[in-house]
Amino acid sequence: TGRWVIEAECKGKPVQHKADVLFVGAGGGAFPLLKKSHLPFRNRFAGFPVGGRFLRAPISTEQAGYYRAKTYGKARVGAPPMSVPHLDLRVVDGKHYLLFGPFASFKPRLERDRGFLDYLRSIRPQDIPGLLNVALEHFPLVKYLISETFKGEKSMFEELENFAPGLSKKFEWKPIQAGQRVQIIKDGDLQMGTEILVSKDKTYGTLLGASPGASVSPEVMLRCLEQLIPSIFSKEKAREKKSEIFPEDDLDTLISNPDRYREIRDAANKKLGIIQPTAQ
Q: Pathway involvement (predicted)?
């Protein structure tokens, strides 16, 4: 038995599963799945897809030692917060790279590997007024995304040169396509964050909006569990495990109590093998 029926495909064959409680963590794909849920609040939400590109350059391990800090610049006047340029060191499969960006783009796709038609199929007639409202109220953002979408390599290198003179010629940079995020349109208004949705009967939960990074994901999933399956934490064993993973889950305490914050930070750094610099 199960209140929810999940239809999927496995090795080219259709499969069906039933569940009493369903959590949808499908990135941009969570929007069309929400539309199919027939939940009352599904019509309050629509998706606004935004893509991103970066310039990437391979560097040696020795060179990587000079670029350990993530360096931010300032967004251009009138540009949205997501456009703040930064230089970042990344390690992929043991190889070091420098990334510079982001260069935003408007791509009507819910996920990188899905097409334009998938996005169109996710739109319902009741979503159109909200999409038009966003286009009008956030016209500078739409204009920015369109201009960024058609930005060529020459303009990207010019931005890098303005950010760090000489760096564009020091390494072999190539543009790469980064991830795809689907921002939330809620009640006709564009939102930039992440939202947890849970049905009143606590049988359906989902995560919409910008995907949280590694530093935020654990806290977001804890809130998902607290809202969707609160009975879990009625058991002593579960509470002990929660305390082990989250020594302090009250953010206000960490903000108001510096000593408690340092205690948890130092314990986390020790587990991660991060050496905290000492004051000189």
A: Carbohydrate metabolism; tricarboxylic acid cycle
Is there a contact between 276 and 266 (Cβ–Cβ < 8 Å)? yes
- Residues 136-154, buried b or exposed e (16+ Cβ, 10 A)? eebeebbebbeebeebeee
Cα separation, 78 vs 40, whole angstroms: 37
Q: Give the pair of three-digit tokens for residue 177.
A: 């396509």
- Which whole number is the average pLDDT over 213-217? 78
Give CA–CA dist 103/54, Å, rounded. 6
Per the structure block, which two tokens stand in for 153?
A: 């390599």
Give the three-class secondary structure for 99.
Answer: strand
Residues 6+ apart with CB under 8 A from 18: 1, 2, 4, 5, 6
φ and ψ of 241, to 5 deg: -65, -40
Residue 142 phi/psi, 5° resolution?
A: -60, -45
End-to-end CA, the chain:
64
How many CA atoms lie within 13 Å of 249's alpha carbon, on the beta-carbon side? 15
pLDDT tens-digit profile of 134-182? Answer: 888 888 888 888 888 888 899 999 999 999 999 999 999 999 988 788 8
**Which residue, chain included where needed, has tokens 């072999």?**
172
Using DSSP, state whether 186 is helix, strand or coil.
Answer: strand
Backbone angles phi, psi at 111, to 5 degrees: -145, 165
